[in-house]
Amino acid sequence: MPRRQTLRAVLCAIVAVLAAGPARTAMPIRDYGLKDYVRVSEDLPHAEEKPWRLVCALPYNCQFQPWIEVDAPAGKTLTFNSSNPLVLYLTPTETQDTVDGKRVYEAKNWVSGEGAVYTIPAGVGVRAVRYRETGYDTSVAGSFWCNDEDFNILWRKAARTAYLCMRDHFYDCPDRERVGFWGDGTPELNQCFYVFDQRAHALAKDLVTRQLQPKFYPGQHLEFLGEYGLWFYYLHSGDLASIAAVYDATKTFLLETYQFGHKNTWYDWGKDSKDTSVIETCFWYIDLGTLRQMALATGHQADLALIDAKRDEVRRTFDQRFWRGRYYQSADVAAPDDRANAMAVNAGLADESKWDAIWTDVLSRTTNASCFFDRWVFEALCRMGRPDQALLRMVTRYRTMIDAPQTTLWEHYDRWWASWLNAFDDASSLNHGWNPPAVVLGQNTVGVRPIEPGWSTFQVLPQEAFLTNLHTTVPTVKGPVTVEIRKSGTEYALSVISPPGTTAVVGLPRRSFTRLNAILANGQTVWNGGYHDVVPGLSWIGEQDGYVKFRLRPGTWHLVGRGVVPLDSPKAPRPKPRAEVALDKRGWVASASVPDGEFLFSGAKIPIKVPAANALDGDYWTGWRDMTRTQYPGQWFQVDMLHRQTFDKVVLDNTWALWDSPTEYAVTLSDDGTTWGQPVATGRGALGITTITFAPQTARYLRITQTGTNPTYHWSIFELSVYRATP
């Protein structure tokens, strides 16, 4: 993919300079101390008479420095790095020359990944290995749990992803670039307030007060300078001083600097059919609304007339310019874009009368958005009263990431570079900060968000759709807000714990009932078709926007709606894992139909070795690839398990090289490595992870043979695991 590789190399060189900006205040970094790996590929102590590799697994993706204790003669060279090849863009593999005797060596630079690889010279004995985890000095103070584990996995991976993209500033990713893009920074700032404690707010403030760079992807500035960036920060932090400090620069950018149709007006890495004219108009309109609020808050009322005139002009001409009877579309694209239509809804430019048509003709069938921009599609669906479709879209589009062994969320859905080339992007990060699930699940699904700056007033307006049990904690500047929802066929129970100094606007959603008979607050009936003022601290707001709303003073509240609550779901539950044991593969011997090889990784042309042994080292970031040619019948990969073992399941994980799954395969077994029986299983590979099950078998040798053809992709196995069911 020469064009993609060239773009990546040039982009990495340019953005590092452009995004650096002026020097910033050093951010606090936490040293978590030395930790043990969760798995090492050899039992220690260990030495060999030839050079060898030690591969070590971490419990999750993190920022770390490898550490090793060896017994070695002087003059030997140790090397260590992450098993994540993307770190080689910024951090060369470190080396240490040994001195005689027992010594400890530690890497000087931090890297990121889920595994470490040490290369050990012949004659060097490894006594112990550990790693030192470091990271931005904050803790996970928020939480989310629901009855569907798919969304719990998404929230945990989103939180881990967000944390790994924090250090001296918000990174787009911690391995390939570490650039402070405003686009990536928008959801990263958002997640600070739903996931981490208040120490993370310093990074958010740093982004808010950073000097704007109008030539550096100005479209990303538009995404940030409105309710999703500046105003989001103010509502959550209450920091009016920072808003006042950036008012003039924001006004200048929006009213004087920004140019519509600029070639570098980047909005999304999704499919190139993005309707930029509609998208940027919507963001500009949203930003003008935020600028108006900023003007009122900071004493710039004299600017209101100009701001209002420009907003009125957009609203007056928007439909005339872009409405096509069933959706919004400019003359620049051949088909309606989900991103453009979602933003028209979010901006309030698409009135409710158009929502059904937009859903039917665009949002129900179009998936141009990347995992960055899909956040606004999810939010539009919730705004349109379709939270069930928001959740279904989220879980469908994130399916590969949910099921993958990685603990973080990726740069692209299915690692698919949708712009220009429409192809697998091997250089895309497997930890990218722009993923929004932690924001959407707390802010939209549970419905917890501030109304007034600094959480003086906040709302709990759930849009839980088909979920039946939810629990979340949002770590606000006033203290934690805790919300729990429990649904049965006859009751909808909503519990809220709000901190001192706050007022909560809480609503029971009418759409969650087919019939609502009564509402109880802390055990007393407060509504049964009309309001009853019988509970101190609770007051009536009314029935608005599909909710029965109340205003609550600080404390613990239990609201229960009684009636008929449907519990049917359009989504199948996540399958429960079966009881099984993974066979210990340390010492197993792997071989293949072709010699061990290597490939040149991405635009940087970094040589990556891919021997057969990599598929058994316990690290799914290192693997075997047949680079001699693309998939063809007769390719095989073989494992000697050293002695006969009983098993009934084999998993082939090529998540790192996602599209290299076997087109078709056959599994055969042998006791001597020469005579092979009839296949015990045949089938087609699945994207990323191919799970093969069969009746229990006992054998020493296992072979997977490729029986299909793929003219585009090679065959890869980045980790092979064998299992036996347990009672």
Overall description:
The protein has 727 residues and is α+β, with helices and mostly antiparallel strands. It folds into four domains: 32-136, Sandwich (Jelly Rolls), CATH 2.60.120.260; 143-445, Glycosyltransferase; 453-564, Maltose phosphorylase, domain 3; 580-725, Sandwich (Jelly Rolls). The chain contains 15 helices and 33 strands. The strands form seven sheets. Strands 1, 2, 3, 4, 5, 6, 7 and 8 form an eight-stranded antiparallel β-sheet that branches. A hairpin with a 2-residue loop joins strand 14 (469-476) and strand 15. Helix 5 packs across helix 8 (276-298) and helix 10 (338-346) crosses helix 12. 46% of the residues are buried. The model is unreliable at 1-10 and 12-22 (pLDDT under 50).
Please outline the helices and strands:
Elements: H1 2-20, E1 29-35, E2 39-40, E3 52-72, E4 77-82, E5 94-97, E6 101-106, E7 111-120, E8 125-136, E9 143-146, H2 149-164, H3 182-195, H4 201-209, H5 218-224, H6 230-237, H7 240-257, H8 276-298, H9 304-322, H10 338-346, H11 355-363, H12 374-383, H13 387-397, H14 399-403, E10 416-417, E11 423-424, H15 437-445, E12 448-450, E13 457-460, E14 469-476, E15 479-487, E16 491-498, E17 503-509, E18 515-521, E19 524-527, E20 538-544, E21 547-552, E22 555-564, E23 580-582, E24 589-592, E25 597-601, E26 606-610, E27 624-626, E28 636-653, E29 665-670, E30 681-683, E31 689-706, E32 715-717, E33 719-725
Parallel strand pairs: 13-17
Antiparallel strand pairs: 1-8, 2-3, 3-6, 3-7, 3-8, 4-5, 4-7, 9-14, 10-11, 12-13, 14-15, 15-16, 16-22, 17-21, 18-19, 18-22, 20-21, 23-33, 24-28, 25-26, 27-32, 28-31, 28-33, 29-30, 29-31
